[in-house]
Design brief:
The complex is a heterodimer of chains A (about 290) and B (about 280). With about 290 residues, chain A is an alpha/beta fold. Chain A has 13 helices and eleven strands. In chain A, the strands form two sheets. A six-stranded mixed sheet of chain A has the order 7-8-9-3-10-11, with helices on both faces. In chain A, strands 1, 2, 4, 5 and 6 form a five-stranded antiparallel sheet that branches.
Chain lengths: ~290, ~280
Amino acid sequence: MPLLEMKNLTVSFDTAAGPFMAVQGIDLSVEPREVLAIVGESGSGKSVAMLAVMGLLPNTATVRADRMAFDGIDLLKLGPSERRKIVGKDISMIFQEPVASLNPCFTVGFQIEEVLRFHMGMDRAQRRARAIELMKLVGIADPEERLGSFPHQMSGGQCQRVMIAIAIACNPKLLIADEPTTALDVTIQKQILDLLVGLQAKYGMGLIMITHNMGVVAETADRVIVQYKGRKMEEADVLSLFESPKSNYTRALLSALPENAVGDRLPTVSDMLFEPAPSVVAARSAGGTAT
Amino acid sequence: MSVTVVEGKNIVRDYHVGGGLFRPSRTVHAVKGVSFSVDKGKTLAIVGESGCGKSTLARIITLVDPATSGELFIDGKKVDIARDGLSKEMRRKVQIVFQNPYGSLNPRQKIGDVLGEPLLINTDSTAGERRDLAMKMLKKVGLGPEHYNRYPHMFSGGQRQRIAIARALMLNPSLLVLDEPVSALDLSVQAQVLNLLADLQDEFQLTYVFISHDLSVVRYIADDVMVMYFGEAVEYGSRDEVFADPKHSYTRTLFAATPRADVASIKARLAKKKAA
């Protein structure tokens, strides 16, 4: 049984100019212990689809789906209070801007313990012990000291580690990472990706990695969904996606990678989307093997 | 013969962090003696992680901050803004494009005014001339005359970065400092902006100092590469030299950290995962 299963998910926003369809009929499923990457540029609806799973969309959004089930529970039929019991405990999410998603008014220790108090009902001593354990797990030195730090006293990479600690505090079955490394340097990005994939393997979580970085996909994913303007363009396992992309859009994305540049110009997505040129595909495979 | 547009000799920049009641003041050495030179029409890329001093160096080259010691030459002339201040002519020669196109445009200023402002401040041109030049520049960066009266919020990230580039080019600078110009952009938009930068460089013989932490972008755009680590230039050479044979261990760490998107490395990763 898949961990998360969505059929024909549609999300529309009410705007002054009528409804805007952010996600248009996406099917998606994640197996336990699987790393699924969702790729697309901004506005492709990749974050919105995941926020719909979490129930975090604003009131102006309308979510429709033929089926949306997590671990056999139908999420569409759940009331808000039942849903809150699942979200943050069994499904948790890491956001793009770590510094912006932590509350600046509370210590990171408080913010980690908050989840444990709400979902696990632990007492003060248990919470503190677990928080220290979590800080060690995500690789923050001096956990006892750092629990009393405020987010502004930590670097971006450390804040992202705290976010991960909060997300995995209750041993979730599914972890959704929304562009977890976009705001970070390459060296820190590598550390955070290794940490995420390591934790995923250690605890057997399902992991959904939302990103626009093809490099991140290549380094982490088992299976990939490519999304464009709210629609699914392609779904494939990671190797066949890079070896033989089927949709023009995926080919365009791959050829826009600077390392695949041939000659002086980078092919852009709009160059290719409407006129698939075989020469470009050939150029890409030549450039790809050269690196 | 190639002309050197910008040259730095042993540039040092210290910041004094004031002490409080219980803390003594201390000195942060942001840039510790960096030397470089860039020829006309070439691109120097400065690579490093956050806090390594690359943006401080950019501020010195853009003549925003003076260097604590060391010499900076622009178009062969020695510039010392701490002693002599900054002439209008110097100000025209160097321009900068910032990382975040959302933060670097005034939300209450129309695009036409954004582009006209450098001319208004630095030249005696009339309103009509400014308008014509702004229109021409909009076309150069791939926007249209219909965008002249719009506000920044009406544009996407890539379009805003085009506007920021257009603004930087209004005064015909000889040197353009690009502080992570594409790291806030999507892959496909990033490709468009990089193409635009390459086209403009060919057309105007521009010299770029390109600051980035993305090695794949650097490899695409740079002629020379400088790798900075804790305020020092640990590696400096032509692109091919640096990429083919990185000498310093930090450069090698950087290369190892860059995600690779080719089929062979995916195969290797999957095989490793299966074995584990």
